[in-house]
Amino acid sequence: MIFQNPESDEIKTLLETVRHIAVVGLSPKANRPSHQVASALQGFGYQIIPIRPAVDEVLGEKAYASLRDVPGPIDLVDVFRAPDRIGPIIDDCIAMGIKAVWLQDGVINEAEALRARAAGMTVVMNRCTYRDYRQLNVVAR
Hints:
The chain has five helices and seven strands, in the order αβαββββαβαβα. The protein is of the alpha/beta class and about 140 residues long.
């Protein structure tokens, strides 16, 4: 089976309905893509939940060591990790009943994307949340 991203209208709907985005691999360094994208998403009105061990906060939000440590709701998991590190993240998403996962530009792991989809998740791979928000004219939060 070959993975295909959802159609653009589905991606737009996803970005219009999620509120709480856990960003796995969110760097505290302002020059890193994960920080720049998360900062922009925060500016669009999303609640950003940093998932980054060994830091207390990023972008003014409390950071958590893992998805399982987050006490509140997660609508979307936005992943900035190496493709070979995705398996445990998908495991956590499945166990937690998370409905959507987004693997950012360059994060390509077809087997894990298909596994997440088979578990009932909406999966977007090798795309950028910020760029899609802008290009798809997502309704402001």
